[in-house]
């Protein structure tokens, strides 16, 4: 994990590892950082052992897919058919609660950022 970005780590030997980031920007950010805990370099300058690892083993990390629900599809179908029995009120409430929780989480994150960095005036 580098900042908020996850990386897949593939160990080459006891002293070398490859970090595979989900995007080039995150990798570039690490390369340009002034951290001194690890020696970092681009893949083009990797050790011989690192270059022998198959490309299939160096897959970027994937983010988890958000939980899905059939509430939206059921609502669209019921409106198109004019049939209210197709709708699932419980699933619609669950979706609304999920959206509300996500909104509150985003607001809390924003408030935390503002409390740390202060508001831009």
Strand content: 5-15%
Q: So what's the overall shape? A: elongated
Q: Which strand order does the major sheet show? A: 1-2
**Structure summary, number of beta strands:** 2
- Count up the helices: 4
SSE string, helices as H and strands as E: EEHHHH
Oligomer: single chain
Mean pLDDT: 79
Name the helicity range: 40-55%
Question: Structural class of the secondary elements?
Answer: mainly alpha
- Mind describing the biggest β-sheet? 2 strands, antiparallel
Q: Radius of gyration in whole Å, from Cα?
A: 23 Å
Measured between the Cα atoms of the first and last residue, the distance is 32 Å
- Unreliable residue runs: none
Describe the structure.
- The protein has helices at 24-32, 48-51, 71-81, 89-117, and strands at 8-11, 17-20.
- The radius of gyration is 23 Å and the shape is elongated.
- A two-stranded antiparallel sheet has the order 1-2.
- It starts with 7 loop residues before the first strand and ends with a helix.
- The protein has 121 residues and is mostly helical.
